[in-house]
Design goal:
The protein has 125 residues and is of the alpha+beta class. 38% of the residues lie in helices and 20% in strands. Strand 4 and strand 5 form a beta hairpin. Helix 3 packs antiparallel against helix 4. The N and C termini lie close together (11 Å). The mean pLDDT is 95.
Length: 125
């Protein structure tokens, strides 16, 4: 299952990612403490007229670039709970410890930041 972010002005897809990365990215946004819980929670939901405006996108991009990306090695993953690991994804679907299914990495976060810097805000689909 994938998540597409649509540019609010052009309606073009500005970022596509699988659900496993997206959930971890949203939780990383939560840990930045930039927005209300309700706004961040809404980012987990597709097709609900949710997302970020241009200014919010730029704020997230700047904060990720200043605080997270420089400290993350090319081989690390950020897990759903914020922990970091060098262990590669085992590609196993965890039915009991479902949070183990979600993680993201530096490469994906850099691509996400690039999207945030060029888009006019986004909606989640």
């Amino acid at each position: 299952m994938g998540i597409d972010l649509f540019d609010k002005e052009t309606n073009d897809i500005c970022f596509s990612i699988n659900f496993w990365h997206w959930r971890a990215i949203v939780e990383e946004i939560r840990r930045l403490n930039l927005f209300s819980e309700e706004l961040v929670d809404s980012l987990h939901e597709s097709y609900c007229n949710n997302g970020l405006n241009k200014e919010e996108c730029l704020l997230v991009a700047q904060t990720l670039n200043e605080t997270i990306i420089p400290k993350l090695s090319d081989t690390e993953r950020i897990l759903f709970n914020g922990e970091r690991t060098e262990e590669p994804d085992d590609c196993v679907f965890h039915k009991v410890d479902v949070e183990k299914n979600y993680s993201t990495n530096k490469k994906v976060l850099v691509e996400f930041v690039e999207c945030l810097e060029r888009c006019n805000g986004f909606e989640v689909f």
